[in-house]
Amino acid sequence: MHRYFILLLLAKQTAYCQHIDKIINAKEVERIERILSADDMGGRKIYTPGIDKAAAFIADEFKKAGLQPVAGKSYLQEFAMLRINPVQAGGTLNGKPLEERNIAAITAKEELSINQGSGYTMKVVQAKDTLGSIVSRLQRTGGDHLLMVDTIHRAMFERLKRGGRSQFTPKGNIVLVMANEEAGEYSIQVKQTVNAMPLKNVVGVLPGKSKKEEYVIFSGHYDHLGIGRANAAGDSIYNGANDDAAGITAVIMLANYFAKKKDNERTLIFAAFTAEESGGFGSTYFSQQYNPDQVMAMFNIEMIGTESKWGTNSAFITGYEKSDMGKILEKNLANTAFRFYPDPYPTQQLFYRSDNATLARLGVPAHTISTSKMDSEKYYHTQEDEIETLDMNNMAAIIRAIAISSTTIVAGKDTPTRVTSESLKR
Q: What residues does the Peptidase M28 domain cover (predicted)?
């Protein structure tokens, strides 16, 4: 009887391996990778036709996989960044004129005029306070605020005042005045130019069965550097085959795999982020759409097209020590030839340099999986980052390993520990 059970278990494992190989294999890796890194994508730079073409392709792949759209009938999670340049500012404070250099505003309005009757909440930012943290908190919560800022914060004040920045559309209006006094009577006017620049993530959803309100995210970024100065070979296109068409290839294939398995207890979200190369705007916006307490884990996948420092059948996990997610993945891979390792490049702070960082700072066990040899990656951010430099068989093995290693998390049997504020300091 015991021998029969072992044979039955081996038969099931063999059938499982055959099933996953039919969906996640080198041929399918190459098909997707070749389309995303082709010259006609123009390097997938934001605000270009190439990135729109890439977004349409990814959305179509999500649709074919059977994922649900994130917004009505659309797989596009659309938002805008604002490029703002101050034009003029002035006013009075407690009967005295205000210098233009002492007025700043965070607003989407081209013209803003306020006084003590405008209903703004006043807050005094003292020398002991952290101006940047206060502004970030008010931007998250929204509302209209007047900040009276101690002159010790001049450097940060200038950064906030400076034009030409890209920023999300504010939820309210924040006016900052540099003065070591509270505002009694005041009248402040601001003029600026505001240009909205549209961006879009591509997001598909596979609803869970018994734990629909618990989310597991598989993600990567689909933007790259576009077209630049030609190299010695005359190539001007930064194709980004490894960075990060490889990660998006993995996301698409995992979407296909789990959609065909149809046994995920938790809801799975597959996300292709825009604007990672420009400041992580896509993943930042995405993170604002979800309650972080409901996100059980995030598998962010970046640059898996080349062998890791340990060779094939291996990859590393950034921020390995900040949660026990890595240990769970290792447990699920125990009977395979694949190994996950802690990040071997801690001085490069990779945990904070990819699209996992925003949710990780909110406590989510959000980690990036990669094989990139960051101390010697020959084609990183060059025109030579093309499909011919990638190992399709090893990529397929990595993607299969991610699928297998996530099994108990997707099933709701394992929940990684949260990332704590203390661990973020380490």
A: 201-402
Q: Could you tell me the residue range of the domain that residue 58 belongs to?
A: 23-80+198-425
Closest by CA to 355, choosing from 273, 249, 290, 422, is 273
Q: How many CA atoms lie within 13 A of 373 on its CB side?
A: 12
Q: Is the peptide bond before 385 cis (omega within 30 degrees of 0)?
A: no
Rg of the chain (C-alpha set): 24
| Percentage of the chain exceeding pLDDT 90 | 86
Q: Assess whether 270 and 329 both reside in one domain.
A: yes
Contact present, 228 and 238 (Cβ < 8 Å)? yes
Neighbours of 173 (CB within 10 A): 20
Looking at the fold, whether 281 and 369 belong to one and the same domain comes out as yes
Angstrom CA distances, 163 to 33, 188, 261, 279, 328, stand at 38, 18, 50, 16, 46
CA–CA separation, 48 and 37 (whole Å): 15
How far is it, in rounded angstroms, from Cα 360 to Cα 299? 11
Residue 171 placed within a domain: yes
314 with 402, same domain: the answer is: yes
Alpha helices, H only, 45-194:
49-65, 131-141, 154-161
What phi-psi label fits residue 336: left (phi over 0), alpha (psi between -120 and 50 degrees) or beta? beta
pLDDT in tens, 180-218: 899 999 999 999 999 999 999 999 999 999 999 999 999
**Residue 4 predicted with pLDDT over 70:** no
CA distance from start to end of the chain: 52
Q: Quote the pTM value.
A: 0.85
Write phi, then psi, for 90 (nearest 5 degrees). Answer: -170, 180
